[in-house]
Amino acid sequence: MNTRPKAIALTLAFLACCGAMAFVSCSDPNDISTVNVTLREFSVTVDQRTVPEGQVTFHVTNAGTVPHEFLVIQTELAADALPTLSDGSFNEDASGVDVLNEIEDIPPGQSRDLTIDMDDARYALICNMVHREGGTVSAHYSLGMRTSFQVN
């Protein structure tokens, strides 16, 4: 009975397992998490609510019928409890919030990307667009365009 082919096969299988385990356990610290965000009247939807600390790319699509914007805010406050101005929009200068970055004026049907280096913290993702027509003011934040987001 020739055991050499069997030993070679077992050795190759062992090496393949070791390689797979090394690949799984050693993630590249330069990996970028991608979060797909959909904006529409009047919601902000993400395909994942939690990502690892590091670079995060938000791929933001305006699936609505009016322009929207996208703000990433680091805060311990709930997304629906951010400080507001008298028109119902989020107060970007309030204490307890840190606007990390934003994409302004995303036309309907368009997508934009925003990449941010994010720390282990809680965030709010919102649209802070305000429309004024005649005597009517529509603040997208107060109409529900907000969601919570976590980085671990």
Query: Count of DSSP E strands?
Result: 11
Instruction: Return the structural class.
Output: mainly beta
Which band does the percent of strand residues land in? over 45%
Distance between the first and last residues' Cα: 55 Å
* Biggest beta sheet summary: 5 strands, mixed
Low-confidence stretches: 20-27
What is the helix tally? Answer: 1
Q: How many domains make up the 3D coordinates?
A: 1
Overall average residue pLDDT? 88
CATH structural class:
Mainly Beta
Supply Rg: 23 Å
Shape verdict: globular
Secondary-structure element string: HEEEEEEEEEEE
Name the CATH superfamily assignment: Cupredoxins -  blue copper proteins
Kindly report the CATH topology.
Immunoglobulin-like
What is the percent of helical residues?
10-25%
CATH architecture: Sandwich
Strand order of the largest sheet: 3-11-8-5-6
Describe the structure.
- It is globular and about 85 Å long.
- The protein contains one helix and eleven strands, in the order H-E-E-E-E-E-E-E-E-E-E-E.
- Helices cover 14% and strands 46% of the residues.
- The longest helix has 22 residues, at 4-25.
- The termini are far apart.
- It is mostly beta strands.
- The strands form three sheets. A five-stranded mixed sheet has the order 3-11-8-5-6, with no helix packed on it. Strands 2-1-4-7 form a four-stranded mixed sheet, with no helix packed on it.
- It has a single domain, classed as Cupredoxins -  blue copper proteins (Immunoglobulin-like, Sandwich), CATH 2.60.40.420.
- Mean pLDDT is 88; it is low at 20-27.
